[in-house]
Amino acid sequence: MRTFPAAVPLVDAGRAFGLGRTKTHELARAGEFPVPLIKIGSSYRARRSDILDALGIVDAEPAATAS
Q1: With contact defined as beta carbons under 8 Å apart, do 30 and 22 qualify?
Q2: pLDDT (mean) for 26-49
Q3: Which of 30, 34, 36, 51 has its CA 20 to 30 A from that of 6?
Q4: Domain span at residue 36?
């Protein structure tokens, strides 16, 4: 998931939740997608951090050790 951009395209976000393309679009239009969406023009995006939080995945980089 760390390779995902900060704002993930709707279909990719849906895949993270195990949703198909049609169901993903239905939920987005109904305002019922599992995470908040950002509408840009006619397309939707979801924040990577929201997806990770909803899935219970910690997106923390390992702490750098001081030498």
Answers
A1: no
A2: 95
A3: 30
A4: 7-55
pLDDT at position 5: 84
Residue 67 lies in a domain: no
pTM of the entire predicted model: 0.78
- Where helices occur in 1-67 by DSSP H, the ranges are 10-16, 21-30, 48-55
CA quadruple 16, 21, 22, 27: dihedral sign = positive
For the chain, the domain total comes to 1
Task: Give the amino acid at 16.
Answer: A
60 located within any domain: no
Q: What tokens were used for 9?
A: 């395209």
Q: How many CB atoms lie within 10 A of CB 50?
A: 18
